[in-house]
Amino acid sequence: MKKRVWSLVLAAVLVLGLFTGCGGSGNDNAAGSGDAEAGDGGKVLNIYVWNQEFQEKFNANYPEVGKLSNDKSVTYLKDGTEVHWIVNPNQDGVYQQKLDEALAKQASAPADEKIDIFLVEADYALKYIDPDVNVALPISQLGITAADISNQYKYTQEAVTTADGEIRALSYQATPGMLVYRRSIAKAVLGTDDPETVAAAVADWDKFYETAGQMKAAGCFMYSGRADTYRVYANNVSAPWVDGNTVVVDPSMMNWVDRSMQDTQEKINHNVPGQWIDEWNKDMGPDSKVFCFFLPAWGLDVCIAPNVKDTSAAQDWAVCPSPQGFYWGGTWLIAANGTDNAAQVKDIMLKMTADREILRSLAVNNGEMSNDQPLMEELAQSPDFGIDLLGGQNYIGVLSDAAASISLANVSPYDQGCTEEFQNTFGDYFNGKIDLEKAKANFEKAIGERYPELKSGGVRWPE
Amino acid sequence: MKNKKINGRSILAHAVLIILAFMCLFFFYILIINATRSHAQLQLGFSALPGSSLITNFLNVINDPAIPILKGIQNSLIVSGCCAAIVTYFSALTAYGIYAYNFKLKNAAFTFIMAILVMPTQVTALGFLRLITNMGMDDSLLPLIIPSVASPAVFYFMHSYMQSSLPKELIEAARIDGSGEFGTFNRIVMPIMKPAIAVQAIFTFVGSWNNYFIPALVITSKSKQTLPIMIATLRGADYMNFDMGKIYMMITIAIVPIIIIYLLLSKFIVEGVTLGGVKE
Amino acid sequence: MRSEKKIKSVSYAKWGYIFILPFFLTYAVFSVIPLVDTIRNSFFEYYYSGLKAIGPNWVGLANYAELLSADLPKYAWNTFVMWILGFVPQIVVALVLASWFTDARLKIRGKQFFKVVIYLPNLIMASAFAMLFFALFSNSGPVNNILLSMGVVGEAIRFMESTFGARTLVALMNFLMWFGNTTIMLMAAIMGINPSVFEAAELDGCTHLQKFFKITLPQIKPLLTYTLITSLIGGLQMFDVPQILTGGQGSPDRTTMTLIMYLNNHLQAKNYGMAGALSVFLFIISGILCWIVFRMNTDPDPDGSKFAAKRARKGGRAS
């Protein structure tokens, strides 16, 4: 017996030794072959993203795409260029951390490891287009002119125009929000699923809460959780989050806190603590009793569709205007300062954000609200344009009015942090764990940790 | 009367043990069941029976470029394997240096190592990060491996083992046979230390395989991430939540290899926990 | 080799230095230099705002004062509470199991099986274990599904939204991961007790409980103390489980935020000054605990030191 144990041990040690041996050389090999691939394949483009949304849209639409690697982490273009996708999750600032680290090394990185393009969201776009930080190339330096992008929604350009008058980012989408509701529940509770009628039933917050009362009486929930309404309130603030080094909490945010608390207590919402989490997904699923979601166009494809695919709810949706206008997100492409493939970067940015056929395909195939105002107005009128998820409804008409009214004047570079910390710290309040004053104090503390430079300015709460 | 009492204790003991064993195994049971079910099935609620999506989930996981798990396993194997080899060899070397030789600073050296025996590495994490950044070793696997040359706890284990199992006469005899000092260590001491080395190699391997704090701070690029970092990204990665089956499968992939190795070597490992204590 | 005899006892000394050199060199480079740098940073205001560095500006002890005035005591308390919630059941269960396993009169079927199973969680990747618990105990996860379908509860329990729930989950995981290990350590200690002591006690008509409290406990006291201290050091380093369970938030209301999670926040935010000051606090606490371990290990009492060797691994592995 003893002998057998020792032989097992010896075997284990041997295996370990093997791992070590293979490990060491495997490491070298991996690095070596990586370089070799990059070397003989021609140029390498590195694109930083936080999920696979843009990657999939690029692979499906960019005309130069040749083939994909097996795991889809590399896209090979027809001329042999390799596009490497570096994905890091957005949440808790992980994407920004990784991006910051890579940008800090941009100057010293070997050519094939330099970032060529990175994507940013509205919440932190300003941090990266800051001319002082100088990590983003103005599009004028790439040779993109105003005429090239004249069809884009103006707000998508104004939002990323800096004090020096330069545009440093381009977007392929407009992100006005709408109310996405479940037809079956509308029928059961309101008697009809007709978008016009439903729109009238949620035309403003008073009507919205009248309808919510009916939903509650019928055993349904009006909406999923406080995070769903957050954007509606956050977009209707009167000033940016940060003034100098002081965090300013807008009265609209405190309205959100009060309203969310009331809705949670009265069970008007389903008390789901956030978005992108399992419970939220379940609320979109076929068995859910949740009536509506506040989403922009991309939410149809990214959020709803995966949860109802091949189920009875696959066409159980329709859209109407939200009681109060809002937008959510927006993805911009930025050419990284120091890119060694400027010509290719320019082509990708132009094709993906200003090529009418690609933008049309995004709208038709992905339910995207593409960044081409005349095209969207054309589609809004088109009787042929409708998507299956919405039972054939043409949602562009609902959105194009909202798109015209979007303004990103009140964004700040700190939006992602303020948004996450505000929702996190007040979450405990909604759960009845702490009182309002404690939640405020926790928010102040969290901001100080996340942004030490804002600690001295403190947080100003509305009267 | 006495028999009855023993029976009562025996029943109690078995009941408690069964409950504890259930607690230990139940969660892994759910894990493995859920790893076999598709996202849609999981959304419908828990079922005690496995689903049919095991292979699908597995393929989804290994084909997901956002979480290159095969690369992660490879990185984890490299780091854990190298750590296990380095820790055992250098700890034995250091222990031998202090055990077999007399020199002026011998006691001071021993005292120093004993003083830092259980000092957590976290307290120097800040300086460590800055240091390796300055050395150009950030975002590489080397800083996860090299510092394990100095492992006070393993040193102490080796030293205790030498005291009980390595007669100094043997070293003398080797010298008389004309063996060099390093030769003696490699050819005579190391084979005697095998049991201790095996135990420490396994524990170091597992410890390093599971290590999260320092790797998460050191590694930035995807291609160099170790398994625990990838598992941790699951927690915050919103795009993963559209397929819970995949999440369960990834956890399974991270946990199951260690469980299998453990079950194969379980008797030896459980004994190894107290090896040296029983000896002497 | 040939001149060996002449310089025998002197010449070998250098080999001692050569053999221990790698250890000390590595330790100096990767631990001592970082420690000095960490301490130095703690006196500066030094952080990154977006992509711009602020500082370093000398601020003396301001970072320390700020830590002490608000956060540090709270997170130290959280860490302690979650540690003790796990440690008390861990040591109690381990003592009971160890005395059962070593009791020759108590026939336990499948003893080997139980030993293997209870030790199993100790080897599981803490981050994966925490992720598993996060999925299992989420508001719509399997545990709630099972409880609902069995009719135990009427509405899903929101485990991770209450302080008690979240802390208990962390403690439960710590308990599961360590009670098997402790059991096996204690078994070895109990088996090390001279059997004749027990035999004599039995002749005198001692009951099981008397034997346990009068003989076993006093005999293994050194190991128990040692377990306590090393577990305390392990508890001080508590990070993986609460970090992943709460997504780094320490929610609810930061009541599961441990000291190392707090350190991690500052390191991730690249706030070197605050991270430095926090590290120095941790260094001082660890230093005191190290000193106690040191005293126990260099104690002439052979039992204490023998078991200390194995026990020490816990501190090493947790790092």
Describe the model:
Chain A folds into 2 domains: 40-174 and 330-380, Periplasmic binding protein-like II (D-Maltodextrin-Binding Protein, domain 2), CATH 3.40.190.10; 177-328 and 387-460, D-Maltodextrin-Binding Protein, domain 2 (3-Layer(aba) Sandwich). In chain A, 47% of the residues lie in helices and 13% in strands. Mean pLDDT of chain A is 85; it is low at 1-6 and 8-41. In chain A, the strands form 3 sheets. Chain A has a 7-stranded mixed beta sheet, sandwiched between helices. In chain A, strands 8-11-7-12 form a 4-stranded mixed beta sheet. In chain A, strands 9-10-14 form a 3-stranded mixed beta sheet, with no helix packed on it. The N and C termini of chain A lie far apart (78 Å). The longest helix of chain A is centred in the N-terminal third of the chain and has 39 residues, at 2-40. With 463 residues, chain A is of the alpha/beta class. Chain A has helices at 2-40, 53-61, 94-104, 125-129, 139-142, 154-158, 183-190, 195-201, 205-217, 226-234, 251-265, 278-284, 297-308, 342-354, 356-366, 373-381, 396-404, 415-430, 436-450, and strands at 44-49, 65-68, 74-77, 82-87, 115-121, 170-171, 177-182, 221-223, 242-243, 246-248, 290-296, 317-320, 331-335, 459-460. Chain A contains 19 helices and 14 strands. Chain A is globular, with a radius of gyration of 25 Å. Chain B is mainly α. Chain B has 2 domains: 2-62; 69-168 and 194-236, Orthogonal Bundle (MetI-like fold). In chain B, 72% of the residues lie in helices and 0% in strands. Chain B is built from 13 helices and no strands. The longest helix of chain B is centred in the first third of the chain and has 34 residues, at 2-35. The radius of gyration of chain B is 24 Å and the shape is globular. Chain C has a single domain (70-318), classed as MetI-like fold (Orthogonal Bundle). A two-stranded antiparallel sheet of chain C has the order 1-2. In chain C, a hairpin with a 2-residue loop joins strand 1 and strand 2 (52-58). In chain C, helix 3 (62-102) runs parallel beside helix 13 (272-297), helix 10 runs antiparallel to helix 13 and helix 10 packs parallel to helix 14. The model of chain C is unreliable at 1-10 and 302-319 (pLDDT under 50). At the B-C interface, helix 1, helix 4, helix 5, helix 6 and helix 8 of B face helix 2, helix 3, helix 4, helix 5 and helix 6 of C.
